[in-house]
């Protein structure tokens, strides 16, 4: 998939968070969206994913030379963010079965294999409500990284992860994300050190 941003901007009330952003995200390439807290990284990710509308400009999604409308993006994009909801009333196994009933698992992996890869076999039958914040973050990453989509978008992926969790994340990205368009919003270099392209939002924060 190729994603093109043409003069994209977002404002809240009268304040522009960013404005006049032009960029092309190409398939099988990794991008880091950088900026201080409040610079609009998470907002931009949601706009690219079709979850929010820009205040100005256009976002164009193309797959196999065909335009994909916003309401048809779900099968093409996997998304994870610290604030996203998971179903706490489900066990880990139930939640992943539920998620992968909507999106195919990557490389034909089974739910059991995914649980093993993320190191949570011992918690497979526990309710997500009983998980620590770090365990929940691994689940949020898993439902995105292990979905078979051409685009993978991660917002601050190492939030709540200890050093072992960070190393797990890097291993998953090395093994399972190289052939995808990857966009990561972050201000933590550990999360995006492997990204080939960097986009700083500081250049688009001019006040109008």
Task: Give the topology, please.
Blueprint: E1 2-12, E2 15-25, E3 30-34, H1 41-48, E4 56-63, E5 66-67, E6 77-80, H2 92-99, H3 111-117, H4 133-145, E7 151-155, H5 163-176, E8 181-186, H6 189-192, E9 197-200
Parallel strand pairs: 3-8, 3-9, 6-7, 7-8
Antiparallel strand pairs: 1-2, 1-4, 4-5
Helix pairs in contact: 4-5
Would you give an account of this structure?
The protein is α/β, with parallel strands linked by helices. The chain has a single domain, classed as P-loop containing nucleotide triphosphate hydrolases (Rossmann fold). 26% of the residues lie in helices and 27% in strands. It has helices at residues 41-48, 92-99, 111-117, 133-145, 163-176, 189-192, and strands spanning 2-12, 15-25, 30-34, 56-63, 66-67, 77-80, 151-155, 181-186, 197-200. Strands 6-7-8-3-9 form a five-stranded parallel beta sheet, with helices on both faces. The chain is globular and about 50 Å long. The mean pLDDT is 95.
Question: What distinguishing features does this structure have?
Answer:
globular, alpha/beta, five-stranded parallel β-sheet, Rossmann fold, 208 residues, four-stranded antiparallel β-sheet
């Amino acid at each position: 998939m190729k994603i093109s941003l043409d003069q994209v901007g977002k404002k809240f009330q009268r304040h522009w968070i960013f404005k006049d952003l032009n960029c092309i995200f190409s398939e099988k390439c990794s991008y880091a969206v950088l900026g201080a807290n409040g610079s609009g990284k998470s907002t931009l990710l949601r706009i690219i994913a079709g979850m929010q509308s820009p205040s100005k400009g256009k976002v164009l999604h193309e797959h196999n030379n065909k335009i994909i409308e916003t309401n048809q993006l779900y099968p093409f994009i996997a998304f994870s963010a610290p604030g996203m909801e998971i179903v706490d009333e489900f066990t880990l196994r139930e939640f992943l079965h539920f998620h992968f009933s909507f999106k195919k698992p990557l490389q034909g992996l089974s739910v059991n294999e995914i649980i093993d890869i993320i190191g949570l076999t011992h918690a497979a039958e526990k309710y997500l409500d009983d998980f620590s914040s770090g365990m929940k973050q691994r689940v949020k990453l898993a439902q995105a990284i292990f979905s078979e989509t051409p685009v993978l978008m991660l917002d601050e992926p190492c939030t709540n992860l200890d050093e072992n969790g960070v190393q797990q994340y890097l291993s998953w990205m090395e093994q399972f994300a190289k052939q995808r368009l990857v966009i990561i919003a972050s201000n933590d270099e550990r999360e995006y050190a492997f990204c080939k392209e960097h986009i700083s939002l500081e250049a688009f924060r001019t006040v109008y």
